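Box S1 | Example of a co-folding query
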Amino acid sequence: MSHPAAGEGAQRLCDARALEERGRAWVWDVLELGRPLRAFALRFDGRVRAYLNRCGHVPAEMDWQPGEFLDIDKRWILCSIHGAAYEPADGRCVGGPCGTGDLTAVRVEEREGQVYWYPSRDIQPLRTDAPVPESTP
Ligand code: FES
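Box S1 (continued) | Returned holo structure for FE2/S2 (inorganic) cluster
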């Protein structure tokens, strides 16, 4: 549901305190072009950043454990499958097999102790009142 206090189209994501610096990410479901997938938000250098949970190498989810995306030094987003590394600040591929496959950013904003995300033309909230579309091969 859109949240009028946070601006047009804003979707409440979580309490800002739920995102600790370089801690566990908040993972949620979205639709991209009508297909369900997950997104994640984490705090890095004080700012909340969010991306689709889809590696630039192979379109697979990247977390090591649910919500755990960072490497052991908490410096890079590291894909658990083949080790592609991304810059948490902008989702850019910085090493490993992602090549030019950067992460897809989701716009987020922190306001008055809450974190909101903003749907785009391609990335929409998962409607709980609508049937989940069947995936096609
Ligand atoms: S699927 Fe992420 S590095 Fe291969």
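The mean pLDDT is 92. Residues 55, 57-58, 60, 62, 79, 81-84, 96-97 surround FE2/S2 (inorganic) cluster (CB under 6 Å).
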